[in-house]
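hey so u asked for the seq, here:
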Amino acid sequence: MTDTWRERLLPASFRGISFLIPQTSVPVGMKGQLHEFPQRDTPFFEPLGKQSQVHKMTAWVIGDDCFDRRDKLIEALGTPDAGELVHPWLGRMQVKPGECEMSHDLVGGGMITFDLTFYPDVPLKTPAARVNTQAQVVKSSESLLTSSLNRYQSAMGTVNQARLGLLQMRNSLSNVFSVVQQQFAPFVSVFTDVNGFAQSLMNSPGSLSSLFSSYFSSFSGSSFFSSRSGSGYRSAVAAATQQVGAVSSINTVSTIGGTDAVKASQATANLVQDSVLVQIGLIVSEMPVATQPESIESMPSVEQQALQPIVRPDVPVADDVIELRDHLNEAIHDASLKADPDHYLALNSFRQAVVKHLTAVAQSGVRLVDVTPPETLSALVLAYRRFGDATRAPEVVQRNRIRHPGFVPALPIKIAQR
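ran it, structure tokens below
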């Protein structure tokens, strides 16, 4: 047997002070503006949102202790903060007291009447600072470049150029020149081969620092990250990972040869290494913290997707980003072991900024999971069954290096969790 409406009523109170409510009212429905026009019989109502829930009620404080409860209720109504109102018909709610009126009546005896007004409490959201990790990476990259150029110029200033031998410089800088060719394409037209590279350093050591300064003045990491292609994170992570390997390959140079040749070769290797790190930082700074895509309740059929492919926002794979972060962290740490105190601070600040940003990017991404298809399937069918999105078939093929997209073997493979 269900309770009657009387049994379901709650005892009225505000901030724990009880009273009786003979009647109450609250606006409901929509507020708006009624437009009426001369010589027209069709008025137009323009909705302007829901009505504000302003509770107006008559409250009675009755009993031998009515004066004590009256004073407590007056104090409760004079408190500016929100309090709990127990509404007999509508339940518990947080409200703020507004304009109220109290009246006494000799005929009424031990009863005080209140006309109460309560406004809905909308909690203010506490402002929360959000660190722009992308901007921090850009700033730390610029600081690292400045420190690197200064270190190179200081080191080359102590080198006696007359004691530099072409053969020694060429042998020491062969790996460094290979990195320059691979990572800084515009320099290829300046240095045709390792001999020209070594001769340029011997004749005009300051020209290399000028080249890097000019290169980064117009460099943009956005060329490695293109969200329009849908593979922005993948291409950026792949490019940065390849460059991290280049950083580690020239951490030190051969110590065979004269003191000045070794010093000049190491200073050059340090400049190129730092420049690759700066380039990685600018590429990483273009990788935003992703917004998780909304789940699609009903996936269209394969035929519909063939006519109108699903547009899916680009989301990073957390495992790839974490792997890049860890390798980059190790490469920067190794480079900092041979840095002077001032340059060590620049490298360490750069390392912290990059690691912090890549951690945030990874947290916004998706993890990889191991999946074993029940039978040999095509990548298109597997992607549709797993994600409901047949256009993600190339993702499955590239991730697992499948030889033919039409035949995914019934073996464990790695695919995105969602």
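Residues 367-418 form one domain. The CA atoms of residues 144 and 153 lie 14 Å apart.
lmk if thats what u needed
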